[in-house]
Amino acid sequence: MTNGSPSSKIASIPNAINALVAPLTTSVTTPAPAAPHSLPPSNPLPKFPKDDGFREDLRKRVDAYFAETGQSPRDLFRMYLKTAIILTWLIASYIFLAYHATHWYEAIPAAISLAMAMSAVGFSIQHDGGHNAYSKRNWVNRLAGMSLDLIGASSYLWKWKHGVYHHTYCNVEGADTDIDLGMLGRVSPHQRHRWWHRWQHIYLFPLYALTASRWHLWGDFKEALTGKMGPHPIPRPKGRHALLFWGAKITSIFTFLILPMLWRQSIWEVVLFYFVVTGIMGVIMTIVFQLAHCVQEADFPAAAPAGEHMDKSWAVPQVETTVNFARGNPFLSWWLGGLNFQIEHHLFPQICHIHYPAISKIVEQVCKEHGVRYTAHPTFWRGLVSHYRWLREMGRPPVSQTA
Ligand SMILES: [Zn+2]
Questions:
Q1: How far is the CA of 162 from the centre of ligand 1 (A)?
Q2: Residue 38 pLDDT
Q3: Distance (Å, rounded) from C-alpha 284 to C-alpha 289?
Q4: The pLDDT of residue 43
Q5: Nearest-angstrom CA–CA distance, 345 and 360
Q6: Strands 375-377 and 323-325
């Protein structure tokens, strides 16, 4: 467990991470993705062998797409327009629900609308901004990334959890924090089985509803104050990161809870609808991410022993641990910010998601040529069934424990 942490290593880890998640296309020249601080985890993280030509071929073919079409990978007018539409949708839903709705038949649709709008902010605006995929200007990306703070979760912690640990070590047990459900669930065959997991395909779905409120009111505070994210130590937010973290938490709690309570002069109504909205949002956001990585068709690589390399170069498991869904559904492709094209997102996190449907055809072809398994569920429903079955499968005691 102890690893020393020499200062040279402290500086080198984010560079290594940057190299891994750096844009595959030379068309995207700036800015470099940044870990928010430079402090390494104490546990040794897996290393990947050098590219065997697959990543280079992907880069060339996608570069050729941008050269032929003359399109820009980022700063798309459609993305700015989409942002305006989503933010208007969000503000209108919030104002109507918090200050105008007087009957349940007004409040329920408004709560669903607000949850969908908040999810759209996370899927489209924040996710692109956080990955520097929104614009070539750093400040635009930062602003877009901060929209996560607007909806109650911390963009600082997201950089570590999603940008570093999930994107670099997708589905690798002990490294990818997204597949760490603690004792509540088992989603990888390399995780320990507990007797209650046999019902996880039933009880996890309602628990997904608590994901967003947990970030907002508890989980983010715990991680920021303890400097611990799953098995990884992380730097506590300091300076402008601390200012943003605490400022956004106070503002969002005031906006979503205190202000509506003062206006309505009712605590229980506001608390009830707070949990309705965050519950719907939690289910939506968790399921969208689970459909990409926690399904029967996804790989769950075991972490290589300390100091050793993983079996395959970085880009290959990015494809094989990820599954697309509903690629032909225009509404989902718009609303989910291209997260139904997660294979393309994992390979090209710094390209605006609006390009994913076009890039998808290229990526699928290159995968075929290199013998890399590319999987896509034709519909959302097929992905959901596969997620349910995977939870059920992982909930059964492993053969070694039943023998
Ligand atoms: Zn991402």
A1: 6
A2: 43
A3: 9
A4: 59
A5: 10
A6: parallel
284: amino acid identity, one letter: I
Say what the pTM is: 0.86
Answer yes or no: are the C-beta atoms of 20 and 163 closer than 8 Å: no
Give the span between the Cα atoms of 335 and 117, in whole angstroms. Answer: 9
Ligand 1 centroid from CA 123, angstroms: 9
| pLDDT band (50, 70, 90) for residue 7 | very low
Element at 232 (helix H, strand E): strand 232-233
What sign for the dihedral angle of Cα 280, 283, 286, 289?
Answer: negative
Contacts of 122 by beta carbon, 8 Å cutoff, 6+ apart: 147, 148, 151, 153, 285
Mean pLDDT of 30-56: 64
List 272's β-bridge partners, or say none: none
Amino acid in position 291: L
CA of 158 relative to ligand 1 center, distance in Å:
10
DSSP for 289-341 reads HHHHHSSTTS--PPPPPTTPBPSS-THHHHHHT-EEE-TT-HHHHHHTTTTT-
Is the Cβ–Cβ distance between 171 and 293 less than 8 Å?
yes
Mean pLDDT of 320-326: 97
Q: How far is the CA of 290 from the centre of ligand 1 (A)?
A: 13
Q: What are the φ and ψ backbone dihedral angles of 376, each rounded to 5 degrees?
A: -140, 125
- Give the per-residue pLDDT at 130: 96
pLDDT at 11: 30
Alpha-carbon distance 224 to 54, whole Å? 38
Q: Is the pLDDT of residue 237 over 90?
A: yes
Q: Tell me: the pLDDT tens digits for 69-127?
A: 999 999 999 999 999 999 999 999 999 999 999 999 999 999 999 999 999 999 999 99
